[in-house]
TrEMBL record:
<dbReference type="InterPro" id="IPR009057">
    <property type="entry name" value="Homeodomain-like_sf"/>
</dbReference>
<dbReference type="InterPro" id="IPR036271">
    <property type="entry name" value="Tet_transcr_reg_TetR-rel_C_sf"/>
</dbReference>
<dbReference type="Pfam" id="PF00440">
    <property type="entry name" value="TetR_N"/>
</dbReference>
<keyword id="KW-0805">Transcription regulation</keyword>
<dbReference type="InterPro" id="IPR011075">
    <property type="entry name" value="TetR_C"/>
</dbReference>
<feature type="DNA-binding region" description="H-T-H motif">
    <location>
        <begin position="38"/>
        <end position="57"/>
    </location>
</feature>
<protein>
    <submittedName>
        <fullName>TetR-like C-terminal domain-containing protein</fullName>
    </submittedName>
</protein>
<keyword id="KW-0238">DNA-binding</keyword>
<dbReference type="InterPro" id="IPR050109">
    <property type="entry name" value="HTH-type_TetR-like_transc_reg"/>
</dbReference>
<keyword id="KW-0804">Transcription</keyword>
<feature type="domain" description="HTH tetR-type">
    <location>
        <begin position="15"/>
        <end position="75"/>
    </location>
</feature>
<dbReference type="InterPro" id="IPR001647">
    <property type="entry name" value="HTH_TetR"/>
</dbReference>
<dbReference type="Pfam" id="PF16859">
    <property type="entry name" value="TetR_C_11"/>
</dbReference>
Amino acid sequence: MADSSTQVRPGGRSAKVRAAVHRAVAELLAEEEAETLTLPAVAARAGVHPTTLYRRWGSIAQLLTDVAGSRFTDDLVVPDSGSLAGDLRRWLADVATDVADPDTLALMRATIGSGPAGGCACVEDRHRQLAAIIQREQDRGGTAIDVENAADFLLGPLYYRAVFTPEPATADWARTLVTTYLATLSTP
């Protein structure tokens, strides 16, 4: 008989429940306004008892933060074109394409609307990706750039346009943000 303390349970019930709940959130946000999203509605769609959601997440805000954190983690590859300009243009164009997706946009709007932690979940991995691009540039001997300043200049307008305006945040528009940002770095 195997020792139960050494057995590894890949996934298991907990992972299946989490996947079903995340899928249910995405489906409900695609069908309805975020304001109508409730833990009982998500539980019914996911095929689990509402107490499971209350016990694990506690509130719709915490659930949305978890879904967004999962959705926006490692979803984009950090490019390595050999130059800061190339890396930033490709990466920000990919971010723009991602946030233009209606399902992604619905999740972002709902999560941002759920509180400060939700907004952080939508951009936390983007900051890590940007920091990796900037670190690679510094490792190549290039310009030292402040990550927060770059995020404010590049992600701020992109997310604002995507979330709060009817104007699309297109990949081409995102590339012009990079060109403008890089021009400001070379201006004294």
